[in-house]
What we know:
By secondary structure, the protein is α+β, with helices and mostly antiparallel strands. The protein folds into four domains: 171 residues, Immunoglobulin-like; 82 residues, Zincin-like; 179 residues, Neutral Protease, domain 2 (Orthogonal Bundle), CATH 1.10.390; 81 residues, Pdz3 Domain. The strands form eight sheets. The protein has a seven-stranded mixed beta sheet with strand order 4-7-2-1-10-13-12. Helix 3 packs parallel to helix 4, helix 4 crosses helix 6 and helix 10 crosses helix 14.
Amino acid sequence: MIVYTIRMPAPHTHLYHVSVVIDGLDGPHVDLALPAWTPGSYMIREFARHVQAFDAQAPDGTNLAWRKLTKDTWRVETGGAAQVTAHYQVYANDLTVRTSHLDGSHGYFNGATVFMYVPTRTGEPLRLNIVTPLGWQVSTGLTPLAGDTPPQRHRFTAADYDELLDCPVECGTQRLLAFTVDDIPHQIAIWGHGNEDAARLVADTKRIVETQRDFFRGLPYRHYTFILHLTDGKNSGLEHRNSVTNQVDRWSFKPERSYERFLSLTSHEFFHVWNVKRLRPAPLGPFNYQVENYTRLLWLMEGGTSYYDELLLVRAGLLRPERFLEALAEKIVRLQSQPGRQLQSVEQSSFDAWIKLYRPDEHSANSSISYYLKGSLVCFLLDIKLRALTGGERSLDDVLRLLFARYPISGPGIPEDAGVLAAVEEVAGEHSGAFRDFFARFSAGTEELDYAGALATVGLTPRWLRHGPQAWLGLSFKREGERTLVAAVRADGPSSAAGVYADDELLALDGWRVNEERLGARLAERSPGTVVRLTLFRGDALVELPVTLAEAPHDALELVPLAERSEAQQRAYRAWLGL
């Protein structure tokens, strides 16, 4: 067995002290590697850069020779020993859901950042010992070692290395809230304080669990842990098989609009219990933790989850239908404001997650789209199309349930080539022929999405609006102290054609000083087709450029009921939202 021990003897140093005991060795050396990324966050993050003070010993305490083979692999010469103990420290001062953090108030760690592994032995059972400062407790999705009882549950087991990494750990004096669903215990471990209402938090989280249980017709775990970090200004989550880490601004729970965003995050990450953690593309497991694991299906894994997170809040009675429609309209506006939608498909966006989504720059909106955003809208269209063709008898709900049953966690995963399409066609039955073209145009292709057609099925129509000036430069701005800089130049806007660059400093319009606020008022006085003079600093050079103003695209959308809705449309609307 491989046994890990993690200590935190001086939390203010931000250093975890880790040891790993490896037995059953029979070769001249053993390799230890640290992951370069963590599942659910598709970017190489080079966790090995935080490792220090590595050494290794034989059972008698003899120091063993070692050397690094690669940036994240250490080779220890066993000297004939059947057991080796490696020691190292990990610097942890990055408070995100995908990294690790240790200070005087708590210790939080993701396994990928702290636990080295033997590449040839990832499938065997493991044990984890956690040594905390006096008075600290431990919250995790790992299984406590038999015989351990609260609050001394500091020894845990994992079936294999994947499970060890899939159970983040919160150590400290976190507050614990509990509830059960179907006699299965659920725990909310809260670090930090804010304006949360504990009773409402428990009730609403329980309702989310119940609604998603009903969707998939059962809960696939024996216990579940919500780790909740209340911080300043953050809002993110990372899913795991029987746990989650969510970080939200400590004041997120009021007013109601802000609380809705918290519920949406909770719903999103919990839906991943099924969609991606168990129902997964074939390339996403078993994982190769050293390199990128490519898939073209993140648009369904993340985009599908983004579609259902708020839809299921409506079905749970936690979000008004009007608010859901507003959020759906906002998604449509965001996608339509990105010229990159004409260049990158959601399949390409999924594949390129490793180099694009987590590394945005000033050109990202012109060259790419988010598989979260467009994926959610493709799933919306797919859901409505299934409902329309089958007279409301079938939907995307049925597709996900079919995929979940067909591709269990122990199996090979969804095939990259047409695996999702095959499930859709099976659910569609006699209407299966309508979907190959849909996937070619909207999943693999970059055609504009037919929002109006889908909305009409449920008795709605899009009403496009413009809140800003009619005349448009096609620029967005950012502030640096007193300076107003161009943040991004839209490729389809007039300023791009005129030669305005990102990071140009805006000085004047037609010879008069402006900043971002004044610019809007000056543009409101002009009409599309007017030529204006922009005065800019480009580095230390003064630049003046003529720009022919264009007509501004619509920047707002309302989804409103049709003037006359048939009974079929009203029935489809109610079935879609679960009303």
